[in-house]
Amino acid sequence: MSKSPKSKLGPVLITGGNGFTSYHIIAKILAEEPDCVIHSLDVNIDRNRHANSNVHYHLTDISSAEDVNRIMELAKPVTIFHTASPEFSDAPVSAYRSIIVDGVQHLLKAAAKVGSVRALINTSTSGVINDNHTDLIDATEDMPILRPPQQQRAYCIAKADAEDAIQAANRNGGTDDHGILTCHIRPCLAFGEHDVGALGKMVAVARQGRSRFQMGNGQNPYDFVYIGNLADAHLLAAHALLEAWGKPRPATDPVDGECFNITNDDPWLFWDFQRAVAAQTGNPVRTEDIVVIPKWVGLAMGFLSEWIVWAISGGSRVPNMTREGIRFSTLIRTLNINKAKRVLGYRPTVGMQEGIERSVRWFMEHTGDEA
After folding, report:
1. Which domains does the chain have, with CATH numbers?
2. In this structure, what DSSP letter does residue 275 have?
């Protein structure tokens, strides 16, 4: 028996469309649906562009209701991929609220008003269930979202509030079969081509010959996800929502109103990943050359770094080394993805080693000696 054709995704609106994750989501959409009309809104439209006449880039601030309404009316999307988010470590706390929380409200109101939207896929974070002090081991989606005082990270508090708003909008807040259907993708640490954040920093460290330094004992398993696999998960969720639209919510394994952990289903030791990146840059680290810095020493260094940068910049800059970053690299963070496998049919198609090779190759070809 032949499978029924997939639902058409387009027209598509993608927020933060010039970001790392969105670049790959757009690539997957175009590969699957070449004639799809895609409208991207972002505050920086000069990076990560696709040279395709069907992709329209709009200089837009999601924290502005007027901007969002204007693009929503222009796009009249069927599917929305909401990925817009300030950089995790660089933005001020005020940006987390205005972009993540206020931006979601603007998006939901505009979507309800335009009347064309059937599916909204929200890119959230697994950080909403972790305090960055406690190990996260084989975590499932039914773990409670953390709130203050347990959760101190402004970014994750804002992301949790955004999840709540999008959750409340599912089926127009009730059982409306024809209301907008929503779900959340919660990725682990994503890496891949165009990742100038986490992976870009790892490549820079490797090129500087500093990958031999390790914080903590290095025995902390970590989940990563190659960005192409993460983009696949977004499209799977979109198709599942579109198939569910107009139908009663099933009693078992619903898609709408749910969140899904996404990983490569292959945890690595955190510092083994860093050294695998280094090896691909041509700067391998021998076991006997590894320099282990105790976690407590790293935390002390992070505190000192934070204090010095704060004093010099008057609080306007974020240091390269922070206590949060030290904890991030020394905790266990693994996620269970059985739900995404069962409900979405998600399977990572690019393995960890291949993903690292592809990613570092892109950096070596596109960033020269400055990455």
Report:
1. 12-197+223-272+333-352 (3.40.50.720)
2. H
